[in-house]
Write a structure and sequence with these properties.
Blueprint lengths: L5 E5 L3 H13 L3 E5 L2 H10 L4 E5 L7 H10 L7 E6 L2 H7 L5 E4 L4 H12 L2
Parallel strand pairs: 1-2, 1-3, 3-4, 4-5
Length: about 120
């Protein structure tokens, strides 16, 4: 039996996070929506998802810290990361570390395309 892939949606905007989760679920991934940086940190220490959609501006622990955690933790080495931010400088900087970086407002079809591509690796 093939393990269904999992995506964490780490986004403090509840509606946006739930919207991202709904479209990602439609392409066949299990999803978990997390609205707080500290909760994201804790969940990433418990389980390594296949894909993370990561907002960079989060309460309690920043998206930058979360991204650095993912990249520095051997248990998360296979996790692919899509950074989303309304800050073009943050997107440009994150693109060096993340698998992909998107500027908000994110077109849903663009997010689907990126997550689908990353989940097929």
């Amino acid at each position: 039996m093939v393990k269904q892939q999992c995506a964490y949606i780490i986004e403090d905007d509840v509606d946006l996070g739930n919207g991202f989760a709904a479209i990602i679920k439609n392409i066949g991934l299990n999803t978990k929506v997390i609205h707080d940086g500290q909760e994201a940190w804790d969940k990433l220490m418990e389980y390594a998802p296949d894909v993370v959609v990561l907002d960079m501006h989060l309460p309690n622990v920043s998206g930058t810290d979360i991204l650095n955690l993912i990249r520095s933790n051997a248990n998360l080495s296979e996790t692919r990361v899509v950074v989303i931010s309304a800050d073009p400088v943050m997107v440009a900087e994150s693109n060096r570390i993340a698998n992909y970086a998107l500027l908000k407002p994110v077109k849903m079809q663009q997010l689907v395309k990126v997550v689908k591509r990353l989940s097929e690796r």
